[in-house]
Write a structure and sequence with these properties.
With 303 residues, the protein is mainly alpha-helical. It has helices spanning 38-62, 66-69, 82-92, 95-126, 132-141, 151-160, 168-171, 178-191, 194-202, 207-236, 239-244, 252-256, 267-300. Helix 3 crosses helix 13. The longest helix is centred in the C-terminal third of the chain and has 34 residues, at 267-300. The chain is globular.
Length: 303
């Protein structure tokens, strides 16, 4: 029998063996960046253009007059009326109070949703109790129910509590979401090892101590993502606030309904108010976006 030839070894100089001619070997590793081709940049640039154009058009429309917007074709360059339209927004609607109310509502809903959903997700992911599967199925099943079906009983409830036209009527129904519970449950199933919880139990830690000292630090990237999504959803919500609140205690979306009234709607004033209502969301995303993406990447790497 013929013995198998041993693979070539590196010379004594320490240089790695050369690849055979005509054979391409893909090399990679930690710290090595793979560069995309020109087609990738074209696709990304096209996607960026499509995504950013609505916001750019909002700026253009907010800085021009209603007559300019009626021209065919309309101008694609910003105009000189931005400050004038902002002043019209402040005159027609109490936008300052609306921004404050939206900040209170969105911030309260975000904090409550993140804490409650993380706690419930931890329970469904790592704690063993009777009926866990049935409760999780019931929680996920509520996502299939259209929110419009619960408007009448919910309004009857807040009317009985005398909360109509008060911010708690908008805050309390949104403190927990089925999506948030399911999202945090799935995140903790993948990111939280059972051995870590068992080690904490051996050391005598209670469930509350495990949650605050172990679960919260591990779940921080998922909590950041859930918080960002919740804040944006609560800030942009119009359906329930328009029912529960009035023009005397509005959120931003309710206040925008008062803009541009008349025989012909002034679209430039409406777009100026929309721009004012969008800037806080962009500011929050600009401040937290890098931390959210960095947290996701750290949570995705298993060490």
């Amino acid at each position: 029998m013929t013995a198998l030839a041993a693979p070539p070894t590196a010379p004594e100089t320490g240089r790695p063996p050369q690849d055979p001619p005509g054979r391409r070997v893909r090399k990679g590793g930690a710290g090595r960046t793979m560069k995309g081709g020109w087609l990738s940049y074209v696709i990304l640039g096209f996607a960026l253009l499509i995504s950013a154009f609505p916001f750019y058009w909002t700026i253009v429309a907010a800085s021009r007059s209603n007559a300019d917007l009626a021209q065919v074709p309309p101008s694609l360059l910003p105009g000189p009326n931005l400050i004038k339209n902002f002043e019209a927004v402040l005159e027609e609607a109490d936008i300052g109070k609306a921004l404050l109310n939206s900040l209170i509502v969105s911030g309260s809903i975000t904090v409550g949703t993140v804490l409650c959903c993380t706690l419930a997700g931890f329970a469904f992911a790592k704690l063993k109790f009777r009926g866990r599967g049935a409760l999780l199925t019931l929680t996920i099943g509520t996502m299939m129910i259209p929110p419009q079906l619960g408007v009448i009983p919910l309004f009857m409830l807040i009317a009985e509590l005398q909360w109509v036209n008060q911010l708690q009527a908008v805050i309390l129904p949104g403190l927990v979401s089925a999506f948030g519970v399911f999202f945090m449950r799935q995140y903790l199933v993948q990111s939280l090892p059972d051995e870590l919880i068992e080690a904490a139990r051996v050391d005598g830690a209670s469930t509350a101590r495990i949650f605050w000292s172990i679960v919260i630090p591990i779940a921080r990237p998922g909590m950041a993502v859930l918080g960002m999504l919740t804040f944006m959803t609560a800030w942009n919500d119009f359906f329930w606030p328009i029912i529960a609140l009035s023009s005397q205690e509005p959120t931003v979306q309710v206040a925008l309904r008062q803009l541009g009234g008349g025989y012909v709607n002034d679209q430039s004033v409406i777009m100026a108010g929309t721009l004012l209502g969008t800037l806080p969301v962009l500011l929050v995303f600009g401040l937290l976006g890098r931390q959210i993406v960095g947290g996701i990447m750290q949570g995705a790497v298993k060490g």
